Each structure stands twice: as C-alpha cells, then as structure tokens.
Amino acid sequence: MSEPSVNRSRAAHRERLDALCWLLLALLGLAFAALAVQLDARLGTASAPFLGRYKIRIGPGTVLAPLVAAGALWAAARPRFTRLRWREIQLFGYMLGLAWAIALALVDGWSGLTKTLGSPEEYLGDVNRVGDHPFEYLRHFTADAGYHSVASRGHPPGPVFFLWALRQIGVTNHIVLGFLIAAVSILAIPLVLAAVRDSVGEEAARRYLPVLVLAPYAIWTAVSLDGLVAVLGAAAIVAGLRASRRRMQGWAPAGWALLAGLLVGVAALFSYSAPWLGLSLVCVYFARRRPSLNVLSGVGALLPVLGAQLLGFSWAAGLVAAETDYAARVAPYRSVLWWSAISVVVLLLAAGPPLVASARKVRNTAMWPFLVGAGAAVLFSIVAGLARGGVEHAWLPFFPWLTVAAVAPERPAGALPPAPLILVGLGAIAAMIIEAVLVTPW
Fold first, then answer.
1. Which residues cross the membrane (predicted)?
2. Is 65 helix (H, G, I), strand (E, B) or coil?
3. DSSP string of 37-86?
4. Domains in the chain: boundaries
5. Which residues pair with 54 in a beta bridge?
C-alpha cells in the first residue's frame, strides 16, 4: 500500500475515533442536563441544555434540510470540487450555508424566520421607541434600560438601530426581514474561509468549507442578530490578516489595521462580548511580528465607541446597566454551577463533532490566534457566571473559530488531512434532530 493510501486510512480511522468521542461526550452531556431537570435544579427552563421547549414537529425543512446536507456532502466529496476557482468556492459555501440555515428554520414553517422578530422580548419591539428621534433614543438608551425589551437590555443599541434603519428604507415584512438577516449572517462563511486561506493556505480552507457550511449552530444563525456580530468580527480578522501580510508595505498595512479596529468597534456596538475578537487580532499581529499594528487597530476600535459616546451613549455605562439587569433578572433564578457545566454541553452540541478534532490538534496549526480570542470569550463568560442559558446564540460570533483546527495536520508541518466529512455529516444529523424536537425562543 502506498504512503498516501496509508495516510488516508489513518486519517479516516482518526476521524471515526473523533466522531465516537464526540458522540459519547454529547450523550453524557445530555444525560447530565436531563439529570439537572429531574433534580429540579434552578435552571429557569425544562429544555436544558437549551432554552425553549421540546415538541416534535414535521415541516418543509424536515425534508429540505436532509436534502441540503446530502447535497453539500456529495458536492464536497466530488473531484470537481477541487477544480473550482477560489471565488467560486466562497460563493458555493455561501449559497449552501444559506440554504442549510434556511432549511433548518423552515422546519417551523415561515414562523421559523419570523417568530423572533415578532416576539415582544426581542429588538423589533423597541424600534417604535426610536421613531423619528434616533439621537434622543441613543442618549436615553442606558437610563431607560428598564423599559427596553429583554434582548435590548443585554446589548448595546446597535441591533435596534440596524432594524430601525431597515424600516426607514421600507423593509418591514417579517419574512423579508428574516431572509435578509439570514443572508447577511451567512456572509461569515466566505469571510472565515478567507481568514483560513490567509493563515494556512487555500487547500486547508477548501477542506474546512464543509465544516462551516453544515455547522449545527446554523440553527440559530438564521434567526439571531448575533449573526451580524459574527460577520463584523470575521471581517475584522480578515482585515487584520491583510494588514499583517509580509508583502504589505507603505500605508496599506496601516489602512487595513485601522479598518480591522473599526469593525471590532462597530461590532462592540452590537454586542458587549464582541471585543474579545480583538484578542485574536492582537495574537495575529504578534504571531506575524507586526505588533505595532495593535496601536492602529486599537485606535480604530475606539472610534465607533467614542463616536457613540459623543452622541449620548456610553458603552461602559451600558455594560454596567446590562450586568445589573442580568444580576436582577436572571442570576437569582438560574444556578451558576449547573449552567456552567450545561453551557459546555451546549458548546459541544452547537459546534458539533469538528470541535473534538479541533481541540485535539490546536497545537499543530498557525490558526491558533483565532482559537485564543474565541476560546477566551467562551471561558470568560463561563467563569464569570454569565453563561446561564442562551449561549447557543450568544456565542455565534465565536463558534466558527473554535473548529478551525479540525483541518490541521495530525502533527506539526505534517500533511493536511482530508475534509472531515464524517464529522460534518454527524453534526448535520445532530442539527436536524435538535431542530426537529426543540422549539427555540429565537
């Protein structure tokens, strides 16, 4: 048997072991969550590890989602896939990722795209408060936090203003809004692929595409505005990678670094956890020996935040108000000990089987800066007691970066493994099961 055949055989065996490991961990985690519910632990929900309620549904997506998953896996395994040009790869990934997210949402029919928008606990309920006086709303955003929807209380005003802007240009139909939010959120796929290509080469990015396209967390991507934060964060990292390229000279690195910071700053106006992605930028700059770019990205990140403060919204005061509301509204009713462990289960299920391979091979890849930023964000929220339900959508900006090492070599500087289609397929099955039995609030 030739050496390439031996390597493929070993990679397939290792992939099956990773799949088995994930399956065992997932079952143990679900058993732990079920035990917590049975013990009547302070969870605030009977649908742990997720928020929502369990109810088996049959809808268009019940048939559509398996077809999309099968088609994506079939296409990724074809020799023709390797001959596509890079832009075609990115477009292919975007279209399939959008189809996968929409197919999962349509398990609930059209309400799968609109129920979040129509909920009184979500951002759209606050758009009427903006009215024709956006600057006044911004100035009183923190002081009036108690009058906001539950979603707005825990976030900066960015999501409300995004929906307000769409209304101003005439986008009011909830189905159209749902499709638009999904279409924008899925832009994270080509952006993450671009980051992987810039870090470790195009071949690794091509093999990572199925992991992104059929990710289980797509269940929440099509229905959560946290997907916009994922896009902004991914765009920031791509800009930072371009700024730190060795062949970049003159003013170009400064421009890209400033843009990277600006994007992180804008993301921070959508989510208080978004600045953690800036840690990935810091690591990228140091890994590529361009630490001076941190100054420019830091300045860029401050500009949107300071701009908002000049208009009346203090990011720091908003963060304090969000933490105060969380401590009064959520913390007393959800056990930090139980949820800290259950949130790890959510991470395992939402990121899917590639998470196991990525964790195992993180030391073998130059993509470690991405994992540092995302991993630090997840770890901090757990240690700080902030992960008490709902992390399946709150961690959307971090999930893609936690699985990037799934396509890393088995040893440093070794040969790239094939695309982990077994792990991807198992994750897709898990996503379809979750979507079929769980009615989420989003």
1. 20-38, 58-77, 89-107, 175-196, 208-241, 253-286, 293-316, 336-356, 368-387, 421-439
2. helix
3. HHTT-S-S-SSTTSSSEE-----HHHHHHHHHHHHHHHHHHSGGGGGS-H
4. 3-439
5. 438
